[in-house]
Description:
Elements: H1 4-10, E1 13-17, H2 30-42, E2 47-49, H3 62-76, E3 81-85, H4 91-104, E4 108-111, H5 122-133, E5 138-141, H6 150-163, E6 167-172, H7 176-186, E7 191-194, H8 198-208, E8 211-213, H9 222-232, H10 236-255, H11 260-271, H12 288-301
Parallel strand pairs: 1-2, 1-8, 2-3, 3-4, 4-5, 5-6, 6-7, 7-8
Amino acid sequence: MIDKNDVREALTGPVTSISVPFNQDGSIDYASLRHCLDFYIANGSKTMILTHGDSLYSLLSDQEVAEVTKVVVEHTAHRAMVVAADRQWATPQETEFAKFCQDVGADMLMVLPPNWGRSCTPASLVNHYAAIAEHIPVMLVTNLFGELPMAQALNVIEMVRDQVEGVMAVKDDLAGEFARKMAMLVHDKWAVISAGHKGNFLDLLTYGCDGYFSTFSRFHPTIGYKFWAAIQAQDWNQVQEIIRKDDMPFFDIIKAQPGGYDAAIHAALELAGLAQRWRRKPYYSLNDGEMEALGAEFKSKGWI
C-alpha cells in the first residue's frame, strides 16, 4: 500500500484529470484512453486521476466504471500513481468497489459520498470514509461540502482528519474561504490539490496546497509545467503572465462553447490528435463548424 509521503510527492505540481473518450456511436474508446495515458505519462504527469465529473461517470454504468478503472490501472503499469473514483454509492457498494480497486492495483480512491437532501450526518460521513479506508487509501473531494454550512463542513473534515487514518489526500473544488480554512486544517497530514483555475491554486498555496489540476496537461502540457517552474522559482511576474495570457483566455473560450466546458475539453483532445470529440448522448458534442472555429482560436493562442 502506498504511503503518505509517496502520495504527497505524486500530487505535487500539475496533475492530470482523465477524460473518458468515446467513439461517435457512444461506445467507450479504449484505444484513445490508452493513448491519452501514454501521452500524459510521457509528458511528466506523476498521477492519473479518474473523477466523477471529468471522467463522465454520469454517463457510465457501474460495470463501465469498473472496466475503465481496470484499464487505467493496467495500462499505467506503475508508471504513475492511479486514483480511482466512484459514482456516489451507498457504503456497502462503495466498500465493494474499494476492494475491487485494491485488487486491480489502484493506489487510492477518491470518495464522493451521496448526500441527497443532506441525508448524512457528520458521524455517518466519517463512518463512510472509515469503511472505505479499511481497504484502500482515500482522497476526499470537497464538492460534497458545498451543500453544508461552512462550520459544519469544516467540522466533518476535522473529524475525518482525526479519526480516519487511511485518508491521505483531499481535492478541493470549492476555493475561497472554505478552501483556505480546510487546507490549514489538514495539510500537515494530507496532500492537498486544487481544481479549476490556476488562480485557485495560488490562493491556496500559502495555506497548504501541493498541486493542481492542470487542464492544459490533457492536451498541451507545456503550459502547466511552465507555470509550475515559475512557481518553484517564485517568478511571480511569469506566473501572472501565464494566467493572463493563457489560463484566463482559455477558460473564457471553452466555457462559451455549446455543450459547455467538457464538450470543449473533448474537442481539445481531438484537436491535439489524442482522442475523438464525441460524448455519449444526451451530452452535446461540437459539430464540424464549431470544431473548425475552436481550432482556429487555439492555433492563434499557440495551444495546438
